[in-house]
Design brief:
CATH architecture of the largest domain: 4-Layer Sandwich
Strand content: 15-25%
Distance between the termini: 64 Å
Number of strands: 29
Largest sheet: 7 strands, mixed
CATH topology of the largest domain: Purple Acid Phosphatase, chain A, domain 2
CATH class of the largest domain: Alpha Beta
Strand order of the largest sheet: 1-7-8-10-11-13-12
Structural class: alpha/beta
Radius of gyration: 31 Å
CATH superfamily of the largest domain: Metallo-dependent phosphatases
Length: 747
Amino acid sequence: MRKWNKLLALLLAMVMALGMTVTAFAEGEDATEDAVEYNGTIVILHTNDVHGAIDGYAKVAALKAQYEAEGAYVLVMDAGDFIQGQPAVSISQGATAVELMNMVGYDVAIPGNHEFDYGYDNLKALAEKAEFPILAANITSNGAAALDENVVFTAPDGTTIGVFGLDTPETATKANPAKIKGLSFAAGEEMFAIASKQVEELADCDYVVCLGHLGIDEESTGNRSIDLLEKVTGIDLFIDGHSHSDLAAVAAATNENRTVGETVVTSTGTALANIGVVTIKDGTITTETVSTADITVAEDDAIAARAAEINAEIDAEYGAKFAESEVDLNGERDPGNRTEETNLGDLIADALLWKAQEQGEKADVAITNGGGIRASISAGDITKKDVNTVLPFGNTLGIIKLTGSELLNALEASTYCTPTAVGAFPQVAGIEFTVNTFKAYDQGEQYPGSTYYGPKSINRVTINSIGGKDFDPNATYTIVTNDFMAAGGDTYYAFAAADAYYDLGLPMDEVVMEYITEVLGGKVTAEKYGEAAGRITILGYSDVTASNWYVGAVEYVTENNLVDGLTDTTFGPSEGMTRAALATALYRMAGSPEVTGENPFTDVADDAAYKNAVIWAYENNIITGRNETTFDPDGTLLRQEIAAMLYRYKGSAAEADLSVFTDADTISAYATEAMGWMVSTGLFQGNADGTIAPKATATRAQVSTILMRFAELPEAPAEETPAEETPAEETPAEETPAEETTDKEAA
């Protein structure tokens, strides 16, 4: 345990502040009238996931000086991921970040997963240069503590603040495994036990703070800050990182701290867009984030000047234009490179495959992880700095050989949670495959030293082709990838287990720049990279999971192109089915026949995607308008209306005793025969309460289920299909459902 006493530094700061005019903390505040008296107050300024946004450090220092001038005892802390990201820090492998943090006067920091991007030895060297401890209680090196575990600070009034650090166990696979050999990152219950031990060790302190890089992302479930705090008590304040969450903003919106149990949890977001401010006074902890853009306190001149100098050095070497792009290249996370194929992912993978082949390798496929793509490139000039920002890790090209079945296993693992974002999501060249997210991931055994699990069976991924040829699970394929993945990073344990691997030693960012200049002639065109090339097909929606009762039906209508999603990523299962959507589904089911008739409806635009479907349904007496001139395409359908439409399309005379339903007398006359047919065929089932709910709104999930069953019915003789249309007045637009039914039985 290391004890750091800041009393002397605080006294010096207060002496320097005497006689100075107090400036406002934020725009609009009057320092002379509204300044808060901070004598006896502990203020913790905190940052996380700065990722090289070094221009903000001068604001951190200024805010620190301001609070100290007001009489506060100030501690400055960082919750990880400070040495990697922008070229300003990544090119020096973090040395410039530590230099500026020393100038600010940081008191303590912890490593994030990206502190290990350049290896453990690099982090140890940076820790020697840091004028503050770097803590992590859950990391060991060959069985011994890899870093300091905790530190205690003492305020002028004797109040003690104990701080211990935790890093995400995901570091084991989010950092290059080859660069962290010998390190272990305790996870789950083991990490919780370590945290409890730290609380015991710091029990004599007035306040216990956990400085963690765990986050709250769903992807990290089991190792998140909120998971830990469900099991570990005695922590007063948890300052979090990793998920780029602005938790203090959430607290401000709800006018209360975010807490788990008795612990206050806070985090600032990323890239120093905000500075976290924790105040501790008379046993009360409050949190907020202050936007750096709104801070009007004068920046620390020395820090601002040094940051500007570092940026100028980068711009001089990396800022010159070497190419241009006609299009924006998508480097976003979600939706983006962690959820789907992108044009930037295609470009990078194309570059890797090209370079490997140029080197004489008979490479079949290129795969790079979406989490390694860190920024977008806007249309216009492209600089070396742009590419280095996109690919900041210094990764090199590696070659591995896998059988087709091993490659399939790796792709199944890397898309295990798609469409939920995951850093392992593959961006590819030379291969086309489909991910069916309607299918559940069949989780197998946990990979050694990893937080990820391999697949027990292949459920979700189908490889359509490799190099334009049919996929062969028994063939051996040569894969070009990056050294991080080749060493088993993210979910790619199958890569680390490959029989053959060798590193070409070619930096990815340089390969991409060479590809743009030599192959593309210095111009990224809209023709080639205007949009994703269609190498990865994703069947599924973010709001439909494999556990939903209707997943099979949504999968059916999607694969058969009957019902479109509400958006590219959402299906809207609980939304009401619209008149236009059902007309479109039936039109497509009929083979989308040619339509020659005129459009009779003023509210169906000539460029509407559903225009032909509506005209076809109208001409075939399947549906009418609400009146002679309006169709109401966005109006939602009642169950009895759906029954009538399906009956007119494919129904036949059938007997069904509707009197068994307690609300049978509420069925409109035009729909009685259709409702009877729906019940007799099993397309409609009653509710558990004995009702048939004819005037309830039918959801898209329910109608998808009905359409799946409907498609399996035998064809009815044409003469038995009712030809006469429902009178418009019998299906009024204003008719409201008695109650929306969402359960499976109602379908």
